[in-house]
Write a structure and sequence with these properties.
This protein is of the alpha+beta class. It contains nine helices and eight strands. A hairpin with a 5-residue loop joins strand 3 and strand 4.
Length: 432
């Protein structure tokens, strides 16, 4: 059974095997991870940007209002009113206020608003899809940790059997019933099992660190987890029914479908470049001039005399824009095709994942049932071999082979059990 396992440095590991200050269940781990995961927070930030895009799209319906002023000075020769040139200095000051109200924008503003609102739906589903990924990841890390913890128990049982056998060998050696080589072999086996136990504990600690890191925990001292609830029967639903339900509820699939609709809105927005645009315009302005060597009216009088009001309409009809609109439409249609291909890819990946999980669940269930029988048989064989060895009817090699078979069946049982639990939870997740 393969679970995610990424951390290799043991120097950063805390002590997890002792009593814990806080014990986490699978649900509490998932809830905490979903609330604190960086990818989820990044997706929520993108969702907030979507809200800003809707506000921006609504603002395109509003008019624009601009004000300006200018002061200029001219020096040197200039053309006079009698069509001659003379040296004179002039200054001018002017101000204006301009209002532009969009009346018809080729439906661009309306379609952009619809696109922005459609993007909100897509972004919500993307947030849910990221949460689903985090949930599945934490689930795998959690079961990996439990799996490694049970392997520690198996290693402890293996060491206990070896120590028991060593004690028997030493008693038999004192009685002169076995050679010293058998005792040395038993000691070697104990040492080997001690190394195996250390490795199993290290693997468990590494798995706990991986889980704590997936939860974005700052402090992992005293971190411990509870066993999963196995009171409910692990019924394996048919793969096709799980797939059908997942198509209707899986956030990643729904997000891909929403992206197709969003791409269709992009095509609609791009086509607005073919339509004309009409604006209502209004303005206020006035100017003040001074000319050297001339009698100039006062500032206030000129401002009153030169005050002007303007209103009007402007029409812009696209005739040829160097194929910019055509190219934008083609780009948008290409994005729509890409979105449709992405949906096909996600549906295929989902079907593959569900079929694989179903096949692995069925295989693990059969393997677990067989391993239960194998463990019982191996335990009976070990007890019988131990009794035979005690009375000198079997040698140390035969006992060791029987012990190894028993430990192997225990490990296989643990592996099959957690493989079955993991695949069942994956199927249940997609079958919701």
């Amino acid at each position: 059974m393969k679970f995610p396992h990424t951390l290799t440095a043991i120097s950063v590991i805390g002590t997890f095997l002792g009593a814990s200050a806080e014990t986490w269940s699978l649900d509490s781990c998932i809830n905490y991870a979903v609330s604190h995961n960086v990818d989820v927070r990044a997706a929520l930030l993108e969702r907030y940007k979507g809200d800003l895009s809707v506000i921006e799209a609504k603002d395109r319906f509003l008019p624009t209002l601009n004000a300006g002023a200018a002061q200029n000075w001219d020096f040197g020769r200039g053309l006079t009113s009698d069509n001659t040139y003379a040296n004179r200095n002039t200054s001018s000051f002017g101000w204006n206020v301009q209002l532009s109200l969009p009346i018809f924008q080729g439906l661009g503003a309306l379609r952009q608003l619809r696109q922005a609102k459609a993007a909100i739906t897509s972004l919500d589903l993307r947030v849910d899809a990221v949460r689903d990924e985090v949930t599945l990841g934490v689930m795998a890390y959690y079961l990996q940790a439990l799996y490694n913890r049970e392997l520690v128990s198996v290693a402890e049982e293996e060491l206990r059997l070896s120590n028991t056998q060593l004690e028997r060998q030493e008693v038999l050696l004192e009685a002169g019933k076995v050679p010293e080589a058998d005792v040395l072999q038993a000691k070697s086996q104990v040492a080997s099992n001690e190394v195996s136990l250390v490795n199993a504990r290290n693997d468990y600690e590494l798995a706990m660190v991986d889980l704590a890191r997936a939860l974005e925990l700052d402090d992992i001292d005293g971190f411990d987890i509870l066993p999963v609830d196995e009171s409910e029967p692990l019924n394996i639903p048919p793969a096709h029914s799980v797939y059908e339900n997942a198509l209707a509820t899986n956030s990643s699939i729904l997000a891909a479908k929403a992206d197709i609709g969003l791409a269709a809105h992009s095509v609609s927005v791009a086509k607005t470049g073919y339509f004309p645009r009409i604006y209502f315009n209004a303005g206020l302005s006035s100017n003040y001039y001074t000319l050297s060597g001339m009698n100039n009216a006062p500032f206030g009088r000129q401002m009153r005399d030169n005050f002007a009001k303007t209103i009007g309409f402007s029409l812009s009809v696209p005739i040829f824009d160097a194929f910019q609109t055509r190219n934008n439409v083609r780009q948008a249609e290409t994005q729509r095709l890409s979105a449709e291909l992405e949906l096909d890819r996600r549906e295929n990946d989902l079907l593959k994942t569900i079929r694989q999980a179903h096949s692995q669940a069925v295989g693990a269930e059969k393997k677990y049932q067989a391993s239960q029988t194998a463990v019982k048989a191996a335990k009976v064989a070990l007890d019988a071999m131990t009794e035979k060895y005690t009375f000198g009817k079997a040698n140390a090699t035969e006992w060791e082979q029987t012990r190894s078979t028993y430990i192997t069946t225990l490990s296989q049982q643990v592996q099959a059990r957690y493989e079955m639990i993991l695949r069942h939870k994956i199927l249940s997740f997609y079958n919701k």
